[in-house]
Design a protein that fits this description.
The structure is a single chain. It contains no helices and eight strands. By secondary structure, it is mainly beta. The strands form two sheets. A five-stranded mixed β-sheet has the order 1-8-7-3-5, with no helix packed on it.
């Protein structure tokens, strides 16, 4: 269903579904202060494209994305980035959820990934 292809065997199981290379993020702190996810992007723009990151997050979370720029030498090239989400101390006592985004952009394109934060276990 996810890959839209038959005959796909999912032999590797993730202990955290957030590890799926999906464009959005669901960050469940649930007693943890730090959550880290890695994503892989494919260049569908022009060769030589450079995308810079912009993060929008609630004041209760610090988000770091590394690298801060993705440089694609050719069309179809893949680049990896890691987003680290850190909840500020004591936030889970007063806040239950929040929203933000991670956006990669250059002069021609913007690619935005929504981020949902939760401090309570569902």
């Amino acid at each position: 269903l996810i890959t839209k292809r038959s005959g796909v065997n999912c032999t590797k199981r993730f202990s955290d579904p957030g590890q799926l290379n999906y464009p959005s993020f669901s960050v469940l702190f649930g007693g943890k202060r730090v959550v880290r996810y890695t994503r892989v992007l494919t260049n569908v723009g022009e060769a030589g494209s450079v995308y810079n990151v912009t993060v929008d997050a609630p004041s209760t979370v610090t988000v770091t994305v590394k690298p801060a720029a993705l440089v694609f030498g050719k069309v179809g090239e893949r680049q990896r980035y890691t987003a680290t989400f850190v909840s500020k101390n004591g936030v889970g006592d007063s806040v239950r959820y929040g929203f933000g985004s991670i956006m990669w952009s250059n002069a021609q394109h913007q690619v935005r990934s929504p981020v949902a934060f939760s401090w309570t276990l569902l």
